[in-house]
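Many introductory courses stop at the sequence. We go one step further.
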Amino acid sequence: ALYFFAYTFFKNGYTDLTGNSNIGALSNLVLGCFAEWTHLPVTLPIDCVTTAIQTDDRNRGAFVLLGNILSEKGIGGFYKGIEAYTVLCLKPAIQYTVYEQVKRIVLVARGDGRGRSSSMSSSSSDSLTAAEAFFLGMIARVVATMLTYGNAK
């Protein structure tokens, strides 16, 4: 959820700065990466403590494990693996970019080249149906996963 809030914030800022609501693929990808990096300072420590809880065989509580991480590794212990996240941030960025670009193509194909059709109401030609959004999201996720993890074995 933090990713989508951050992405919306950056997207609105971009459109306010440029005055253009049509965001190209490269700009969309950069905005997506910024949005992904934005939530890392909050979510990485939570992930670190969650992993410690799941792997703790002595059933110590979250606060005890949090204290152990702090005393053994300092604040940096909560950000172990942040280097990998700089690469992994591409997955949601690619996913959202694919989604937005294909959505634009679908909406333009519905209408007369501008995303509007004289035979359709403007609300139905300006947005996807729930089923279209679901399938488009699914396709975007598959594409992003294949591009990000395609060579991982």
